[in-house]
Design a protein that fits this description.
13% of the residues lie in helices and 22% in strands. It is of the alpha+beta class. It has a domain at 41-140. It is globular, with a radius of gyration of 16 Å. 27% of the residues are buried. It binds zinc ion (ZN) (2 copies).
Length: 147
């Protein structure tokens, strides 16, 4: 049962996680996880896709793209596959490269986030809350897919 999933495909993947400091999930003593595509970091996050690196792995990036579906800013429908993986809490401020801190943002909205007076948080994985300089907040949740 160690065969990897199809390249770039969907379904179950075998994921090797080197040096995962978050010990959630998986079998003890094992760094191989079987990953199902529906295990998207949503509502809660067991940090199984977290990495110490600045850039997310392909799988983490893909899962956040699927979850967000489009840019995480209210009113922007820029397709997630053309957005950047962005850290809600900046990486250099200790923000994790993980599903509970990652968000898809278009270049334009990334600039908005960085501009003065804006605060962006992720109260729970997949919910992106933007506070405008006026104090007003806008929250965008994960994309809904037809069942
Ligand atoms: Zn997490
Ligand atoms: Zn955007």
């Amino acid at each position: 049962m160690t065969r990897p999933g199809p390249d770039g495909g969907y379904g179950s993947w075998i994921l090797s996680v080197p040096g995962n400091r978050h010990a959630g999930g998986g079998q003890p003593g094992s760094r191989r996880y079987r990953v199902d595509m529906h295990k998207i970091p949503l509502h809660e996050c067991d940090h199984r896709y977290a990495t110490d690196a600045y850039a997310p792995g392909d799988l983490l990036r893909h899962l956040v793209q699927v979850r967000d579906g489009e840019c995480s800013f209210t009113g922007c429908s820029h397709n997630a596959t053309q957005c950047d993986f962005e850290h809600t809490v900046p990486w250099h401020e200790g923000g994790a490269t993980d599903g509970c801190n990652g968000a898809m943002r278009s270049r334009r909205c990334h600039k908005v986030k960085q501009s003065r007076g804006w605060t962006v948080t992720q109260p729970q994985p997949g919910w992106h809350q933007w506070q405008a300089p006026s104090g007003r907040t806008y929250t965008k949740g994960p994309k809904s897919y037809p069942a």
